[in-house]
Amino acid sequence: MINKIHSLGGYIHEYQKSVANPQAFWAQQGESFFWRKRWDKVVDWNFDEPKIQWYVNGKLNITENIFERNLYTHGSQEAIIWEPNNPDEESRTLTYSELFVEVNKFANTLRRLGVGKGDRVAIYMPMVPELAIALLACARIGAIHSVVFAGFSANALKERINDAAAKVLLTADGGFRGDKITPLKQIADEALTNCSSIETVVVLKRTKSDIEMVVGRDIWWHKAVDGQSEVCPAEEMDSEDPLFILYTSGSTGKPKGIVHTTGGYMVYSGYTFSNVFQYHAGDVYFCTADIGWITGHTYIVYGPLLAGAKTLMFEGVPTWPDAGRFWDIVSKYQVNQFYTAPTAIRALLAKGNEFVEGKKLSSLKVLGTVGEPINEEAWHWYHDHVGRNQCPIVDTWWQTETGGVMVSPIAGITPTKPSFATLPLPGVQPVIVSNEGKELTGNSVEGNLCIKYPWPGMARTIWGDHERFRQTYFSSYSKMYFTGDGVKRDEDGYYRILGRVDDVINVSGHRLGTAEIENAINEHPLVNESAVVGYPHAIKGQGIYAFVACGELSTGGEDGIRKSIMQGVTKIIGPIARPDLVQLVPGLPKTRSGKIMRRILRKVAEGDATNLGDISTLLDEDVVEQIIDGALVDV
Ligand code: 6R9
């Protein structure tokens, strides 16, 4: 059993303990799990190299903690409840015992394909139970999974496969999303024309799309699994052996392969899941994220399953067949904890109340949000119309790099305030730092959010590039992890996340690096250069505004070019990175030393050209005038 907080006093007590003696605190949390060999030392760290090790020399397998540890008590209970894209298709459930069998069989399949401890397995799949099975099968045999969100393009998939030098790719013939089918295998084939490390592609039949199978490389999932043993001994892992790689965007062009390891991630995902959502045995928990993102890894798969929970996995989208789909699912399965993103709430709010009214939502006890700041209007709608004023909202702040929730209310225990992530979880020591690197103590302060002590779930490195890891997170402020977010601590000591302070934008809860999008735009043959900024968007939170300087505007005129630029980005990264607005400009505002003055572009994109700040270093003021004149938002 994972230790649970039951009261505000209990939270305060645990928090104080965790700061006074982090090692004792995390040792106590570690005790809740099954270790083949106990750790010698709880933590060994410095933020200079940086070196971060938790549960040093502990030996374990995370799947033994999900299965062997839970089977006696939970064997016949549902582990995964799966709701298909189409409400008319039959749903599926897998009990812990059934899931264990599937995981073992697939783990044996992978072993037979020559996958062993430390090998990388790339996963490009729709939201079906086999996706969760794939993750757990990798973990069972010590292979490192690298899930690539099924909305990414062939090019993005290729980059990620090559960066990790994955040996096997797991995919499907296609994926259902609303009334569309994503041709996953076809996209994978395109990616694989340039991936020399891949030896085998395992293809799950899902959409029954017409696909090509490459002889000697591709095998069907069901055929590969057929006849495999239901028993697969777990590989013994060191606490610090990598569990998975997950790519995320940063302020420079290339995506970063964030590496999470086994022991610390296990303790952190299990502890935070049980506490933040106040999960009780028997509850049905539904997180609407895709397993292609960290939220899905930690709070659809690992956290809930470690806690022996019933975790609901949904294949489809919130607005198909209509905008009541989430609420139909909540009522169908009597969901108790529901976790989604502000962008989904805003999209559903915009469709009107008729889709939520009249739905049977009385089973709901806790509502959660993640991915971006939640605006007050969305918070109140969620609270009043979905939660019917009965459910606490947990606004959970965290990142791919943090592995699990960092700042959040404990459901029903921490008093909430709309759009505040409230207080740090036990074991988390946030600090607010000025741009000059000075720690701002006390309340009513605003600055950069850093963390000054390690926690077990934190990333350990960037795959293949530890120096970039150091540089990105540990060089801005001495001896601290820098999150890239701005934050305010109000008069009550509550934290409100203000959004990114670096060149990362957050579109519908998806992190995108502006440089990554610019690189894609610049591939267009007519483009000389470009600058991308975020702008306020009613549904997506931030939209993508691209300022693009072209040479000749001959082919197809301005509209044609704008369209082909958008298509180019979709092809190179994926539809999530497609700019909402493309403004063709005569040039970009630059300083005399040739730096793009993004501040000016951000202001224009926000629709405010009144106060552009100091423009004395600007090379050519006319360019700014022309940009303002041609702006695609009201300035
Ligand atoms: C889990 C996840 C991380 C970035 C993060 C921040 C933003 C996430 C938030 C939030 C305000 C919240 N973010 N949760 N901002 N309030 N509750 O989303 O990971 O995809 O890596 O994004 O998302 O800006 O730095 P990831």
From TrEMBL:
Residue ranges constituting the AMP-dependent synthetase/ligase domain according to the UniProt record: 67-462
Domain Acetyl-coenzyme A synthetase N-terminal: from-to ranges: 13-65
Keywords, ordered alphabetically: Acetylation, ATP-binding, Ligase, Nucleotide-binding
Top-level class of the enzyme under EC nomenclature: ligase
EC number: 6.2.1.1
Molecular functions per Gene Ontology: acetate-CoA ligase activity; AMP binding; ATP binding
Keyword presence, Protein biosynthesis: no
Gene Ontology biological-process entries: acetyl-CoA biosynthetic process from acetate
Listed InterPro entries: Ac_CoA_lig (IPR011904), ACAS_N (IPR032387), AMP-bd_C (IPR025110), AMP-bd_C_sf (IPR045851), AMP-binding_CS (IPR020845), AMP-dep_synth/lig_dom (IPR000873), ANL_N_sf (IPR042099)
Domain AMP-binding enzyme C-terminal residue range list: 516-595
Gene3D superfamilies reported in the protein's UniProt record: 3.30.300.30, N-terminal domain of ligase-like
Pfam family, one: ACAS_N
The family this protein is said to belong to: Belongs to the ATP-dependent AMP-binding enzyme family.
Full protein name: Acetate--CoA ligase
Organism listed in the record: Sunxiuqinia dokdonensis
